[in-house]
Amino acid sequence: MQPTLTGDVVTPHDPGYAAARQDFNRRFDRFPRYVVFCRSVEDVQAAVRWSRQHGLPLRARSGRHSYEAYSVLDGGVVVDVSALNAVTRTGNTASIGAGATLGQLYDALWADGQVTIPGGSCTGVGVAGLTFGGGFGLLVRLMGLTCDSLIGLEMVDARGRLVRAEPDLLWASRGGGGGNFGIATRFEFGVHPVDYVTVYSVAWPFAALRAVFAAWQAWADPRALDRRLTPILVLGPGGITALGQFVGPQAELERLIAPLLAAAPPTSVRVVHETYIEAVHRFVGDWAVEPTLSRFKNTSAYQLAPFPDAALGTLADWLGRAPSPNTVVQFNLHGGAEADFAGGAYPWRGARCSLQYQAYWENPADGPAAVGWVNGLRRAMLPWTRGAYVNYIDADIADWPEAYYAGSLPRLLRVKRRYDPDDVFAFPQGLSSAYRGPGYRPSGAAPRPSGSTPRRP
Ligand SMILES: Cc1cc2nc3c(=O)[nH]c(=O)nc-3n(C[C@H](O)[C@H](O)[C@H](O)COP(=O)(O)OP(=O)(O)OC[C@H]3O[C@@H](n4cnc5c(N)ncnc54)[C@H](O)[C@@H]3O)c2cc1C
Q1: Is the overall model pTM greater than 0.85, yes or no?
Q2: Residue 2's pLDDT is what?
Q3: Which of 391, 394, 424 for mutating ligand 1's site (highest number of atoms within 8 Å of CB)?
Q4: 457 assigned to some structural domain
Q5: Is 447 within a domain?
Q6: What pLDDT, on the 0 to 100 scale, is given for residue 386?
Q7: Which of 21, 48, 80 is the last residue of a domain?
Q8: Are the beta carbons of 71 and 62 closer than 8 angstroms?
Q9: Residue 373 lies in a domain
Q10: Domain limits at 170?
Q11: Which of 302, 298, 289, 290 is nearest to 389 (CA)?
C-alpha cells in the first residue's frame, strides 16, 4: 500500500501556516512544505514513510526550543509530535509522550503523587529534545540529568517501524542529541519523590564581579558542596545574580549560602521555602534569568577546573563591552548525582560547570552585533574551557561532533549507522553515517528525487 500523510497536515496555503512553522527563536524564518501535527504513532510512521517515498527531508519536532531552530526546515516535512503528550504514572515509573512540555509533565506528575523527573527550568521546553541532549536543571546534583532517569523509549525508525530501545539505542538517547536516530513517540522515566524546596536569589552590582565570582567559585566546589543544592551564577553588564534550589529546610540553606553573602554587600537577598511546583513556576516567572526577547544567540562551553584570574579578566572585559544589557554569562554547577551516573552517551560528567554565553534582542538589526559578541566571547574563553553542550546547539561551532560528543562519538556513530544508515534523520549538526573524522560536514538534507514536486496528500 502506498503511504500517505495522516494527522493534521498544514501547508503554506493554510491559514494556520505562519504559527505552525515558527520555532521559539524568532531569529530564524524557515518555510517547510508540510507541517504534520501527528495525533498517533501511526501518523508519525506514515510521515516518515511518505517523506522518504517523496525524497523530502524531514525534521522531528517536540517543544520547538532548538536554539538554531533545527526542528524546522525549508522545503521539507516537519513531523510535530506535540499532541503525543500523555503523562501517566505507575508506581515509580512514568510514561511520558514525546510531545509533552516540561510544564505539562511537571504539573501532571506533581498532581499524581508529588513526584518529578529532574528536567530544565523553562517550562516550554519539550521533553524530547531536552532528554536526548542530556537535560540540566535545578535538581541535577541530587537526581542527575534528565536522561539519567530515562529507562525506556519508543521511536519510529528510518523505515517507519516502531522500535523499543534496546541497550545501545537507550545509551545513545542519553545525551546523543535530538534528531539523530529516529522520532521518539514515548519515554519511560523513573520518577523521584519531591515535596518542599528552598530557593534563593541574591543580587549584586556589576562592580562586585571579581569579589563575588572568586567567592562563588571557591564555594561552588562540585565535590564538596551539599548535593541537595544546585547553584547557578549569572553575570551580566546590569549586575550579578546567584540563585539556586536546595532540597531541604530554609535554615540549612541560609547557613550554606552565608559565604556568598559575605563576598560583597548584596543589593537584594531573597530566600523562599515552598512546594517544588511553586518553585518550578517561580523560575519561569519572577525569578527567570533570561531576558524575554524573541531573538537570541546562545552558546556554551564546559569549565573543567577553577578559572585563573586571566579567565575572569577576559569575562569581565567582554561583559564590560557587551553590545546591550540583554547579555549574560551563566554558570551551572554540575557534579553530585550527575557525576556518579554511568551508562549514557552524555560525555561531560567530569565537568565542574557548564557555561552559557547568551545575547537577546528584538530588532533584527541588532542581531549581527549580538551574534558577534557571543561568538567572540566563546572564542576568547577557549584557553580555559572545553567542548560544548549539545542542547545549547550552536551552528557556529566548527568542531561540533567532538565538542558535543567527545569520547562518545565513535559508539554514537555505530548506533547511527545501525538505525539510520541512509541519513534520513539529517540536519546541519546531525550525526551522519558518512562521518569520517574531524572536518566532516553533513549535507543537512536527504536527497530529493529529480524534478518531482509532491502533491498535497
Ligand atoms: C528558553 C530556553 C530554555 C532552556 N532551558 C534549558 C534548561 O533549563 N536545561 C537544559 O538542559 N536545556 C535547556 N534548553 C535547551 C533545550 O534543552 C534544547 O533546546 C532542546 O533541544 C529543546 O528541545 P525541544 O523538544 O523543545 O525542541 P525542538 O526544537 O522541538 O527539538 C530539538 C531537537 O530535538 C529533535 N527532536 C524533537 N522532537 C524529537 C523527537 N520526538 N524525537 C527525536 N528527536 C526530536 C529536533 O529535531 C531538534 O533537533 C533551553 C532552551 C530554551 C530555548
Answers
A1: yes
A2: 64
A3: 391
A4: no
A5: no
A6: 98
A7: 80
A8: yes
A9: yes
A10: 87-193
A11: 302
CA 100 to chain centre: 14
Considering Cα of 183, then 302, then 144, then 118, what sign does the dihedral take?
Answer: negative
Give the pLDDT score at 440.
Answer: 57
Number of domains in the chain: 3
Q: 26, 61, 136, 292: which to mutate for ligand 1, most atoms within 8 A of CB?
A: 61
* Cβ 165 under 6 angstroms from ligand 1: no
* Among 31, 65, 80, residue at a domain's last position: 80
pLDDT at residue number 447: 36
Going 343 to 348 to 354 to 359, the CA torsion angle's sign is: negative
Q: Are residues 56 and 95 in the same domain?
A: no
For 374, half-sphere exposure in the C-beta direction (CA atoms, 13 angstrom radius) is: 27
Residues 292 and 235 in one domain: yes
Residue 287 lies in a domain: yes
Cell of 20: 505552525
CA distance 127 to 96: 8
Half-sphere exposure of 174 (CA within 13 A, CB side): 27
Q: In the numeric block, which cell numbers belong to residue 240?
A: 550579578
Instruction: Evaluate the CA torsion angle 6, 11, 17, 21 in order and state its sign.
Output: positive
Among candidate residues 56, 114, 40, the one with its CA nearest the CA of residue 279: 114
Task: Determine the Cα–Cα distance for residues 143 and 335; give it in Å rounded to an integer.
Answer: 10
Segments of the chain with pLDDT less than 50: 444-457
**Cell, residue 379:** 572564542
- Same domain for 140 and 247, yes or no, is no
Nearest to 275 by CA among 194, 191, 192: 194
